[in-house]
Amino acid sequence: METLATGTDEPITVIVSYHIKPDREEDFKQWVSGIIRTAGTFDGHQGGYFFRSPDRTSKQYIAYKAVFRFDHHSNLITWEESKERQSWLVQLQPLLEKKLQYEKHEGMEFWFDLPDIPPKTIPRYKMAIVTLLAVYPLILTLYTLLPLVLPAGIPKFITILISCVCTCLLMTWFVMPFMTRIFSSWLFKDA
User: Fold this and answer.
1) Is pTM, for the whole model, over 0.85?
2) What are the tens digits of pLDDT across the range 20-38?
3) CB neighbours (10 Å) of residue 72?
4) Nearest CA to 110 among 12, 2, 6, 9?
5) d(CA 49, CA 114)
6) Residue 28 · residue 95 · CB < 8 Å
7) HSE of 152 in the Cβ direction (CA atoms, 13 Å)?
8) For residue 43, what are the contacts with CB-CB under 8 A and spacing of at least 6?
9) Pick the CATH number of 12-107 from 3.30.70.100, 2.40.40.20, 3.30.1490.20, 1.20.1290.10
């Protein structure tokens, strides 16, 4: 697997495409359960989602996608280089029709979306509800705590700017990965 060249240790989302032999789909589902359990024991793992790809045109293979997240790129590398992961990849080889394909993405672009699922698949009202459930408590908490830690008499626009920066950082690296994981079965129910 290629490693993403990065000078930072940011959260990272990995997308893997699987092309499974049609007669090995049940074996693949068992493999998925096992690797998810194992990956969940590694530091920084924030969840994984496997789903059957909408591409059903080939009779030679069944396409699946996986999206999984790590809180830091360094934790992903630890997982990628682990003996446990290597063992799972060896078990996967007889199930594959084609070579695995990987994509890695940093940042907030993957708050909600999954590859090969059109954005309209996740209803906007669901995205709005989950975002509101994440943002409202965060803003209330910052509104309460910031005046306690900032110097007295600081201009209101500076306080708002600091609040916005904190909200964006927390939403991107902690809150939305957590919320997406908790609400994934509801958000991606029809995906």
Assistant:
1) no
2) 998 999 999 999 989 989 9
3) 16
4) 12
5) 9
6) yes
7) 0
8) 75, 78
9) 3.30.70.100
